[in-house]
Design brief:
The protein has about 210 residues and is mostly helical. About 75% of the residues lie in helices and about 0% in strands. Helix 6 packs across helix 7. It is globular, with a radius of gyration of 20 Å.
């Protein structure tokens, strides 16, 4: 009986520690997007997460670690999206992509900031490639072969498709960030058509 109780206690402890870690990561994304990476401090992040500064440092050694952690979370969510759409067609995948968090305001701001910081710091850029994006590329390759079959039968074609999709997501988010106060949200159906190069859409400032 006491062994079983001990296991339950350990499980609860692990769950609590995981939740605290997630709270800190989410708080970091909020503080980064609100203040910018340079002006954000670990003290501000700890306050946003409602934890002591020492608790934050138990999980993360620096702001850079927190920036990487949220990027890792986004990549994990993208991989989950790929896994959930592996039995769908490309149109359904694009529809679900643009309904997902990748075009939401907070993640849009974070993505742009992440690109900027990677550009400023080649070492951080390399770490993102080695630990995150190469993993994402491998999962994307499996996804494309499953969903498109013989249409993309070489790795070069798949790499090119990955680059096109990545560029589209980044470019779209940058454009939305620039025009967020001047244009309406574009319906998901139109975003899918734009991504498939089937339709030009006029951005209205009404």
């Amino acid at each position: 009986m006491f062994i079983g109780f001990g296991e339950k206690l350990e499980t609860r402890k692990k769950k609590y520690l995981s939740e605290v870690k997630d709270d800190i990561i989410n708080a970091a994304s909020i503080v980064f997007c609100k203040n910018g990476y340079e002006k954000a401090t670990t003290r501000m992040i700890a306050k946003e997460a409602h934890v002591a500064l020492g608790t934050l440092y138990n999980y993360f050694k620096s702001k850079r670690d927190l920036l990487f952690a949220y990027a890792e979370k986004m990549v994990g969510e993208f991989i989950t999206l790929l896994n959930e759409n592996v039995d769908n067609d490309i149109k359904s995948f694009l529809y679900n992509l643009f309904k997902s968090q990748f075009v939401r305001e907070k993640n849009r701001s974070f993505l742009i900031m992440l690109i900027h910081e990677a550009w400023l710091d080649p070492e951080f850029d390399q770490m993102l490639d080695d630990k995150l994006f190469n993993k994402l590329k491998k999962r994307f390759s499996i996804f494309v072969k499953k969903i498109l079959g013989e249409k993309f039968n070489s790795q070069a074609d798949i790499d090119a498709l990955f680059s096109i999709l990545s560029s589209f997501i980044i470019g779209f988010n940058i454009q939305r960030e620039k025009t967020s106060n001047r244009v309406k949200e574009i319906p998901v159906e139109k975003l899918v058509k734009i991504a498939r190069f089937n339709e030009k859409v006029e951005l209205s400032s009404d």
